Amino acid sequence: MFLMQLGEELWRRFVPKYLEVLGAPVVAIGLYGSLEDALDGLYQYPGGWIADRYGRRNALLLFVTVAAVGYVLYAIAPTWPFVFLGLTFVAAWSSMASPTLFAVVGDALPKGRRALGFTMQSILRRVPIVIAPTLGGLLIARVGVPTGVRAGLGVSIALGLVTLAVVWRVNIPLVSGHPPTNIFGVWRALPRSLRWLLASDIFIRTCDGMVDVFLVLYATNVVGISAPRFGVLIGVQMATAIAVYLPASAVADRLGRKPVVAATFVAFSLFPIAVVLSTAFAGLVLAFVVGGLRELGEPARKALIVDLVEPHLRARSVGLYYLLRSAAIAPAAFVGGILWSLSPATPFWTAGVIGAAGTALFVMTVSE
């Protein structure tokens, strides 16, 4: 996770600018974000099925290899539609591998240590985000967007090869002895409380998806900061997240998971509003601190999902949860692009309202 994230964060945040340079209109950039969310959903359940059927190690080996093919397609893209083709391969790591990584924590740790396990997993995933976007931004400022992004993709390919050697050491036996189950059986196995969590999560991720792909455009084109400064903002966001992970995990163990997850949803709702109220770099720094606070309850939410599902359906249940969530939020970025054409601030205000609705739904319906 650390190696793949380190490579991807050199260029991932700048893909909208890469598309812009390759000639993509703003609606196409929004469509890219929607396709990213759609693939994130469509790939989740197949990824979980592969992990449950062929084992964690074989699944991860496959996903890393397919993602590396996508990095190559991104790097050689002569026009923006090639980036869309590359995304169908790149998403094998960011989406297909997600249920497997959930299942590894659930398989390897007892219930009482899973929240801490997800906390450590989240820290390892986000440490590269503190430094890599800034390095990527500096590289882009020095050599330009196309060359800088392609150089970052070259690093991703090299780190992907190293990751294959690391993944080979993952050795967790499968849970066997249960009858085959199709996707409808997996859905019926999800408890009611998890379904309410999914519903509220859809609102929150719609809030996030509507503006995420436009953050770099708003910061650089509207507020007027440079690419390296945007990289610094991402670092601030991730440093904030890392700083609150362990204290939030301790609070969740003592007071329960619901208050921490609710605070997370509040931060999701406030983040787009804080961004759109910013008129200078200092304001954006404060906004991205709020963005970092969105991670407060993520380990607790993930642990709750893993606790509730059946062990022999673990990867598939996680895959189904994220498939439904991502399918529901897939139009968000495209709608954000349409709203952006009205005014750059419109998608951010709309996202804040949707996030508030999701927070209220969670507080009223989800019970631990």
Describe what this molecule looks like in 3D:
The chain is an all-alpha fold and 368 residues long. Helix 5 packs antiparallel against helix 8, helix 7 packs antiparallel against helix 8 and helix 7 crosses helix 15. The chain is globular and about 55 Å long. The chain starts with a helix and ends with a helix.
Shape: globular
Mean pLDDT across the residues is: 88
Q: Give the number of DSSP strands.
A: 0
The count of helical stretches stands at: 18
Radius of gyration equals 19 Å
Termini Cα gap: 30 Å
**Class per helix and strand makeup:** mainly alpha
Q: Which stretches of 5+ consecutive residues score pLDDT under 50?
A: none
Strand count, sense and barrel status of the largest sheet are: none
Tell me what portion of residues adopts beta-strand conformation: under 5%
Instruction: State the helicity in percent bands.
Output: over 70%
Series of secondary-structure elements, N-terminal to C-terminal: HHHHHHHHHHHHHHHHHH
